[in-house]
């Protein structure tokens, strides 16, 4: 069983003090916060491609790296990073060939029904409560557009200081190559003039 495997490994990890090379403080040394996707291909690739190590940055991950609304948990974490954890710059990083860009909300809902997790009655109640489940489950169509939308949402957020650069990038999940969508420094200069 996976849990037992992990617990056994962890016990040995702690006993052998393998954590020592990773010791860091909670304040990011590079004073940055990164929002990106939870894609398994990016677990090690993203930090290596950005040259960030333990203690360098706050990294927030979710499906697609999507900021769903100005007051969702991602934005709560970004705001906390800026005010409480000394992050001076924000990096919003999408990636090519993201599963969220090929999401199929109707198919996901059907899988829920097939597994007996929900029923048509429960789905109706969710809809009646004002939740558009298909919209909630939908990812995005175009990663560059999503990245631009994320940048616009963060840059115009009423709780984000106007002097904080908000960068938008897209990473290739195979090579780690970054493409610049929005240069946060350039955007700040344009806003000041």
TrEMBL record:
<dbReference type="Pfam" id="PF00484">
    <property type="entry name" value="Pro_CA"/>
</dbReference>
<dbReference type="InterPro" id="IPR036874">
    <property type="entry name" value="Carbonic_anhydrase_sf"/>
</dbReference>
<keyword id="KW-0479">Metal-binding</keyword>
<keyword id="KW-0862">Zinc</keyword>
<protein>
    <recommendedName>
        <fullName>carbonic anhydrase</fullName>
        <ecNumber>4.2.1.1</ecNumber>
    </recommendedName>
</protein>
<dbReference type="InterPro" id="IPR001765">
    <property type="entry name" value="Carbonic_anhydrase"/>
</dbReference>
<dbReference type="GO" id="GO:0008270">
    <property type="term" value="F:zinc ion binding"/>
</dbReference>
<feature type="binding site">
    <location>
        <position position="37"/>
    </location>
    <ligand>
        <name>Zn(2+)</name>
    </ligand>
</feature>
<feature type="binding site">
    <location>
        <position position="98"/>
    </location>
    <ligand>
        <name>Zn(2+)</name>
    </ligand>
</feature>
<dbReference type="GO" id="GO:0004089">
    <property type="term" value="F:carbonate dehydratase activity"/>
</dbReference>
<feature type="binding site">
    <location>
        <position position="95"/>
    </location>
    <ligand>
        <name>Zn(2+)</name>
    </ligand>
</feature>
<feature type="binding site">
    <location>
        <position position="39"/>
    </location>
    <ligand>
        <name>Zn(2+)</name>
    </ligand>
</feature>
<comment type="similarity">
    <text>Belongs to the beta-class carbonic anhydrase family.</text>
</comment>
């Amino acid at each position: 069983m996976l849990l037992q495997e992990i617990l056994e490994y962890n016990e040995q990890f702690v006993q052998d003090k393998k954590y020592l090379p990773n010791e860091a403080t909670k304040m990011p040394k590079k004073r940055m916060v990164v929002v990106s996707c939870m894609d398994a291909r990016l677990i090690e690739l993203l930090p290596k491609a950005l040259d960030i190590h333990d203690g360098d940055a706050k990294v927030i991950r979710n499906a697609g790296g999507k900021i769903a609304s100005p007051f969702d948990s991602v934005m709560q974490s970004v705001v906390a990073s800026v005010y409480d954890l000394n992050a001076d710059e924000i990096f919003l990083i999408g990636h090519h060939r993201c599963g969220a860009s090929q999401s199929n909300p109707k198919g996901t809902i059907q899988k829920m029904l097939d597994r007996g997790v929900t029923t048509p009655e429960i789905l109706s109640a969710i809809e009646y409560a004002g939740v558009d489940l298909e919209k909630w489950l939908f990812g995005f169509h175009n990663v560059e557009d999503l990245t631009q939308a994320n940048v616009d949402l963060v840059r115009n957020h009423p709780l984000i200081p106007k002097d904080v650069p908000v960068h938008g990038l897209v990473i290739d999940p195979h090579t780690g190559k970054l493409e610049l969508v929005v240069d946060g420094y350039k955007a700040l200069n344009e806003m000041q003039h």
